[in-house]
Each structure stands twice: as structure tokens, then as C-alpha cells.
From TrEMBL:
This is DUF1593-domain-containing protein. Gene3D superfamilies: Immunoglobulins, Ribonucleoside hydrolase-like. Residues 376-483 form the Cellulose-binding Sde182 C-terminal domain. It comes from Delitschia confertaspora ATCC 74209. InterPro entries: Ig-like_fold, Ribo_hydro-like, Sde182_C, Sde182_NH-like. GO terms for molecular function: hydrolase activity, hydrolyzing N-glycosyl compounds. Residues 19-288 form the Cellulose-binding Sde182 nucleoside hydrolase-like domain. It holds the Pfam family Sde0182_C. The lineage of its organism: Eukaryota, Fungi, Dikarya, Ascomycota, Pezizomycotina.
Length: 552
């Protein structure tokens, strides 16, 4: 590791602290305790306003707040160590603060806990208090078990307030549920469809269909076999990297799949990739889109979306699970580094994240640019640095195409952006936007009738910078390019072809005639020095003889 560091004040600053309440059926199985341990290593990013022990279909008539307190107590032993490794303005909460928001939920299953004469549980009362608080920041309710306490709180608020005031209070809520684990989730979405609600909807107890199982469930549930890299979920890796130090001793061995609840807060991690208000952008916690875009339907439900990802076996996987497992190496290394932080106050003994400067701006929010169709844009991350001065940085840029697509057939809707490095390390790149006929149109009557428009889609580019520390840590910066068309041109109704690219290969491409993808002249014979420019699992590829190889 490095022997010379920059001061802590140059660590990344957060955008804001996110308000969070967790509903957990802890002790039902080990995964809630595992997820809580990980959550606490990120607790400086959150205003944790509630830790509520709840029931679920797996724990129907008891709640275990004491299990939450046990883990928080041990967190108190390491919190000062954790504080030594973050920006001094964004410290971790004390164990006393967290103990002060632990509550019991209703000790009954689902809607049976909501009779006319049933008193509010302490957990439901806390939810009401925090929803009514004058703080207007979004309040994220992370549901690791049943949600009857949330349902009871919403019903009480609706009875208590004028309809407009009740709706205003609900507009602050952001729900991320790990599937429906009681009958109250469906009740909430039916009676309060305006509530922002991320949840995988599937047949009862068919959890293998849910996006969140992409965190670690491919072997247990049998999906995407060969796609995810599995080594960082082995029991041996966990013993060596996670179950270390006082807090690591509170991380139990897994029983079914580890950390099934973790995607709910991975979606909120401030690392330059996530934008919690836009689940369709994609994050460590997966990618979700509205189940009904119609204004005629009063629904704010977000369901699973899919990404196309090159797996460890070189095959192309199109699945909802891939929206999470594609980031596994980065989020597992990140957790491992934080467990090391928990064991020492010595800054020089641990690795820390790169700090990205992009086009003379730093921070974690997306960089937003307008780009004329057919134009070139320069993106410059030359000022990016690492706090651990001896670490080497690897720059990888990729076009995240799925967030720009409305339809399943991404290749026909989202053209290929060329990303060409301008220096050996790819700190600086030139981005070529496809011409207007590839982007700036809308379907006006059927799939063949298109009309030119002034503004096309917003394109998502991602810069990923990884250091050479132990474990390697990754920071991101998302670039949002609004494609413009100041000079309208006649439409061309030719499908956009995907760029030929073997798994992990790096060949910058330009669009030839009629949408064909051809290697740029500068790239021929010179792909090795540009290897850092393209992330290995970005999917702008056709494998084999023009046939896409998919797992599902």
C-alpha cells in the first residue's frame, strides 16, 4: 500500500445524506444480519431514522429488535475506526444514535395486524412521525421483510389528514421492497398507487424470478449460470475478507443466499453511478422501470428491467439479475475495504477510493451535456487522482445503452457511440455521436413510420476508475448526453446494427453506410494501448456469425 497520502479533506464529498428507515424480519434467516453489517459500513451516507424489527411470511408472530441492537452495539466498537477513512464532514452516526431509532413492529402477520381496534405498533408510529417531519428530503423505506407497519402508518395518515395533505406526505416516500413478504405490499400499491414503490412482482415465493437475487443467487436459484463471477461469494472469500474484526464476527454464515436484502441500499450508495430518483438509470442495486408509463393509470410502481451483459464465460446474458451481478466485483471489493477500515484508524494501512475529476468538475452527480447528432465530444478526466499516492489507476469508459431504450430491442433503438482514447491511459477520450437519422426520431403511427424531432434520447456514458490497491476500489462518473438535432434531416428507417466485438476486446468503432459498424482506421492494429477505454461487460456486441448468444 501507499506510504504517502493526501489529507482526509480530499476524500470524496457526498451530495447529501439520504433519509432511511429499514424494516427487517431479522433472525428469520442469516441474510438480514449480513445486510445490516454491510449497511453499517456505509452508515455515514445515510440519516438512519428507523431500524424496525418486523414480521414476514417467514416470521409470522414475533419480532427481534434485540438482534438489531446486538449488531449496533458491536458497530459502536469500530465507529471511530470507520470515521478515520471518510471525509471529516460526513462522519458515521454513533451507536447511541442508531440504538435510539430501533423499534418493534407489529407482532402479527400482514393485514391481520390492521384491525379497526388494533393499536399502532411502535414501528408504525415511528414511520408516521418521520413521514410527518418537516424534512422534505425523500424518505427511503427499505423493506427486508413484511410491510404491514408501513401499511398501517399510511392508512392512519390518510384518515388523519386532508386528502391533498396526505398525498403530499406520501410524495416524500420512496419504497424499495425485497419482493412482497406479506400481503400488505399489494394492499399498499392497490390503495395508494401514487407511492413511489420499487419491487419485483412475481408469483408468490418465486424469488428466483426477482432482480434482487442477482446479488448472489445464481447457484441457489439456477439462473445465468456461468455469467456472474462467483468467487467473491464463496465461504472462503467471506471468511478472509468480510468475517474479520469485531464487526465481521457479527456477519453470520449464509444459509440460502447471502445478503438478499442488500440491493435495497446498494441503490442508494453515492459512488457516482447511482441516481436514486431514477431507478431506470441502473445502479449497484439493479435497474427498474415503471410498469405503466400511461398518465391515465395512477401508478408509481417500478418493476424489473433487463441489461445485456457479457458474462465471465464470454456469453451474452439478457436478464434482470444481470442488472445487479454485472457490478459484483466492485461492490464486493468495496465492502471488503470497509471491513478493513473498521479494524484500524491508520489511514495508510487501508485503500481508499479514487476521486474523479471530469471536464474540470468533481463530485458524484452526473455530468449533463448537450451533443448535436453526428458531433464529437471530448471528455477529460486527466485531473483524477487517488488518495493512496502509489496506486495506479485504470480508466474504463462505456456506453450504458439500456437506460436510453424504451423497447426490448436495444440495438434497433439506441445507436452505438464511439469512444476513442486520446492518450495511452484513456484519461481523455473523444466521443462520436451517431447521426440524426439514428437517434432523433419518434414513432408516429406504427413501427415503420418515424418523424424527425429536435431532441433525441439522453445517452448514458459511464466512466469507471479503479485503483491498484488491496482490494481494488472503483469510483464512477455518469455522463448524460442529450442528443440534439438542430438541422432536421429526412428519416432513415434502417435498424441500427450492434458493433462486432469479442468479449473484452477493444476496437473503437465508427458507423459506416446504412448503420453498419466498421472498425475505425486508427484502431486497426492499435487496440492494446486502448484497452482501458472499454469496460469488459459493456454489451455493444454480436457474437459468432452475426447471431446473438443469449442465456435466456
Amino acid at each position: 500500500m501507499a506510504t504517502k497520502q493526501l489529507p482526509n479533506s480530499k476524500l470524496p464529498k457526498l451530495v447529501t445524506k439520504t433519509r432511511v428507515i429499514i424494516l427487517s424480519d431479522i433472525s428469520n434467516e442469516p441474510d438480514d444480519a449480513e445486510s445490516l453489517v454491510r449497511y453499517l459500513t456505509y452508515a455515514n451516507q445515510f440519516d438512519t431514522e428507523g431500524l424496525v424489527a418486523v414480521t414476514s411470511t417467514w416470521l409470522r408472530d414475533a419480532v427481534r429488535p434485540e438482534e438489531i441492537r446486538k449488531i449496533v452495539n458491536v458497530y459502536g466498537e469500530v465507529v471511530e475506526n470507520l470515521n478515520a477513512h471518510v471525509h471529516p464532514n460526513w462522519k458515521y452516526p454513533s451507536a447511541d444514535e442508531l440504538r435510539g431509532v430501533v423499534r418493534k413492529g407489529a407482532e402479527a402477520y400482514g393485514m391481520s395486524a390492521m384491525g379497526d381496534d388494533t393499536p399502532l405498533s411502535p414501528g408504525a408510529q415511528l414511520l408516521i412521525d418521520r413521514i410527518e417531519a418537516p424534512d422534505t428530503r425523500p424518505l427511503w423505506i427499505l423493506c427486508w421483510g413484511g410491510v404491514v407497519d408501513l401499511a398501517h402508518a399510511l392508512l392512519t395518515l390518510d384518515d388523519k389528514h386532508h386528502p391533498e395533505d396526505s398525498a403530499r406526505l406520501r410524495s416524500r416516500l420512496r419504497i424499495y421492497a425485497i419482493s412482497d413478504q406479506d400481503d400488505a405490499g399489494l394492499w399498499i400499491r392497490t390503495n395508494f398507487p401514487d407511492v413511489f414503490y420499487i419491487v419485483s412482482v412475481h408469483g408468490w415465493n418465486q424469488y428466483g424470478l426477482a432482480a434482487w437475487t442477482g446479488i448472489s443467487g445464481e447457484e441457489y436459484y439456477g439462473f445465468d449460470q456461468g455469467g456472474p463471477e462467483t468467487e467473491k461469494w464463496t465461504r472462503g472469500w467471506l471468511r478472509q475478507n468480510i468475517q474479520i474484526g469485531p464487526l465481521g464476527k457479527m456477519y453470520p454464515d449464509y444459509k440460502y443466499i447471502p445478503e438478499g436484502d442488500t440491493p435495497s441500499f446498494l441503490h442508494l450508495i453515492q459512488n457516482g453511478l447511482s441516481n436514486p430518483e431514477h431507478p431506470d438509470y441502473g445502479s449497484w442495486g439493479g435497474r427498474y422501470i415503471k410498469t405503466s408509463p400511461s398518465d391515465a393509470v395512477d401508478s408509481n410502481h417500478y418493476g424489473d428491467a433487463v441489461d445485456r451483459v457479457l458474462g465471465a464465460d464470454g456469453r451474452l446474458y439478457t436478464s434482470n439479475h444481470a442488472t445487479i451481478w454485472r457490478w459484483r466485483e466492485a461492490f464486493q471489493n468495496d465492502f471488503a475495504a470497509r471491513m478493513q477500515w473498521s479494524m484500524t484508524k491508520e489511514f495508510g494501512e487501508c485503500n481508499h477510493h479514487p476521486v474523479i475529476w471530469l471536464n474540470d468538475t468533481t463530485g458524484l452527480e452526473p455530468v449533463k451535456l448537450d451533443a448535436e447528432a453526428g458531433s464529437k465530444v471530448i471528455l477529460d478526466a486527466s485531473r483524477t487522482y487517488d488518495l493512496d499516492a502509489d496506486d495506479k489507476l485504470t480508466f474504463k469508459w462505456f456506453h450504458y445503452r439500456e437506460p436510453s431504450a424504451v423497447n426490448w430491442l436495444v440495438d434497433q433503438e439506441v445507436g452505438i457511440v464511439t469512444i476513442a482514447p486520446l492518450d495511452p491511459e484513456a484519461r481523455k477520450v473523444e466521443v462520436t455521436i451517431p447521426p440524426a437519422e439514428k437517434y432523433n426520431f419518434k414513432i408516429v403511427s406504427d413501427r415503420r413510420a418515424k418523424k424527425q424531432v429536435a431532441n433525441g434520447p439522453v445517452l448514458h456514458l459511464v466512466l469507471q476508475v479503479t485503483d491498484s490497491g488491496t482490494p481494488p476500489l472503483t469510483s464512477y462518473r455518469r455522463i448524460l448526453l442529450q442528443v440534439t438535432n438542430n438541422k432536421l434531416v429526412p428519416p432513415i428507417a434502417t435498424p441500427i446494427a450492434a458493433a462486432p466485438m469479442a468479449p473484452g476486446a477493444v476496437v473503437p468503432l465508427v458507423l459506416g453506410a446504412v448503420g453498419n459498424a466498421v472498425p475505425s482506421a486508427a484502431a486497426v492494429g492499435n487496440s492494446t494501448s486502448r484497452a482501458a477505454a472499454v469496460i469488459g461487460n459493456s454489451i455493444d456486441a454480436i457474437l459468432g456469425n452475426g447471431e446473438r448468444k443469449e442465456s435466456k
